[in-house]
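Question (not urgent): is this output format expected?
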Amino acid sequence: MAAVPAAEARPHFLISDLCSLLETYLEPHQVKEVYRAYLMGAQAHEGQRRASGEPYIYHPIEVARILADLRLDYETVTAAILHDVIEDTAIDKQEIAASFSPEIAELVDGVSKLTQVEFESRVEAQAENFRKMLLAMTRDIRVILVKLADRLHNMRTLSALGAPKRRAIARETLDIYAPIAHRLGLNALRLELEELGFAALHPLRYQVLDNEVKKARGHRKEIVTRIEVALKERLRQEELTGEVLGREKHLYSLYRKMRDKRMSFHDVLDVYAFRVIVDKVDTCYRVLGVIHNLYKPVPGRFKDYIAIPKANGYQSLHTTLFGPYGVPLEVQIRTAEMQHVAESGVAAHWLYKTTHGGSNAAQTRAREWMREILELQKNAGNSVEFIENVKVDLFPDEVYVFTPKGEIMVLPRGATPIDFAYAVHSDLGNTCVAAKISRRYAPLSTPLLSGQTVEAVCAPWGRPNPSWLNFVVTGKARSAIRSFLKNLQQGEAVEFGQRLLRNALAGESALLEEIPDDKIDALLEEFKLSGLEELLADIGLGNRIAPLVARRLVPAGGDDSLDHDGLEDHAPPLTIKGTEGMVVNFAKCCRPIPGDPIHGFVSAGRGIVIHAQWCRNTAEHAHHPEKLVDVAWGNRVDGEFPTEVRVELANQKGALATVASAISGEGANIENVNIEDRDGLYSNIIFLIDVADRAHLARVMRRVRSISLVNRISRSRS
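Got this back:
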């Protein structure tokens, strides 16, 4: 493959050339509208020059040319001509709408960056611009087509920029724009973006690979010709019509395969690739049979993307064969229409208005993806989180699983039953408690494999677990879990903050309802908070200390000055009920359980952390008495609490199973087992078990102690 030539070396594509190209498929009055847009753009960009020194107007003409090559409608081409005027000139959206149409104005605005908004960091500004663009795309997919064409021409002319900026733009292209082009099935666009991005980001690696491919091309030519002749001859013998083409791997795909699979250059290059283009779907399968008779197929390397298209609408048969001379042979078989869709994706047979006709598979899949993007936007906390979730969804590798009703679901490789549940519906994901894979119960963290039937088991009391974030892979699942937990924690924080503040006010002989509104409003204004609920949430999350807030609301003797010693001398202890949720956390160092004497310590962002009074880590908080909260267990505490017991157990067959059975027999769940050390006679084993309280733990320990194989059992306190 030859190195991609720089755009500056090419003759400029003029407006007359663009109009000639558009006349091959647009109506004359539509071409006139594009020319009128050129006149407006040329006047608006008058005097502006690109980094290369050329007049700026050449750039929008080239962007329009890329879209015209895809045979897109005149609105898209017009928007391409004007795509930078809002951002870089005095022309605004209203003027474009008045001169052309609101539709074209929306397209131009969707591509324009947020130049008038101040951001705290470049990352936040970049993320917010991506969010604006992607949300505009969900309203009109042509926005992203203009943006991709804009990025492609910028990549073609990247040599005019300095090295650091070149690398930054190239990385952004490989991380975001090329995967989006792939997700929308725009294969030709994606390949050029990848090649240009690779050349700019790793110029030396690109050059070395390019030189090696050129050297190897001569040696490969004879083998490629022989295989091509053999394939054509066999098709002729079977009276099948098809075009056979030898494919050369692109440099970026070669590089990525070498990097990801740790393969040498010659191992990757020794795979010979061919494509067979036929007239209809039935012929694809007949050709497959013929080729499998000619060369033996490699087991497990056949993929039918015609029956089950990829997420971007791509369709083809893929097979790997043992070719002549022992060389691996990759063959793709598809129809001419599939080839067109594979290259142009959502832009193939452009039918923007659904009333004008049906959509191709790529357009249908793109609309589904856009619905997912809207859901991600709804759940995302900020622009950076939204973009991270979108990037997660741009994985090219997929698994195909079935619902219990036999419907096919396409998920990223590594997806789990939780990802599956959220892909079906957010409510199913939020209430999922178990999963069946091929009719057998399996852990929710199990990676799914193609061909499996997956069923999500839900319950009304089910809710997302924070640990799910450690293994889900889809942006939709990650975003929905975070959103649910965020809202849940906010509600719990408000409720718990109110309890903390009431408790602290009781120590000051006051009630929250008796505090004058003007006193509360003055404090909210001082703290720059929007309302009492936000103040209570801050207290519940540990961002503000309840006794200090209480002293501000009810100053002793009219003096706001605070003595931190003995803040809670007169306040009743806060009762822990076990239903506080995520705003009360139990320390893992001492693992307190109901019945243990306890201390509470305020921790910013986490609420209150409960330690056992005998825990050595409580000494660290002695220097911050204002963070100490007087707490006590309630009369009735709900839930189960993890604690550790250390068992010295004889080394005999079945001993561990006997102890585990005894623990389960007392109604305690075993979360984890860890064998610390072992000699010839005994093993020290740490069991992490869930108990209701100290009395429950005592019953478990008595039951285990009664086993003859147990030498000693004790509660672990560190």
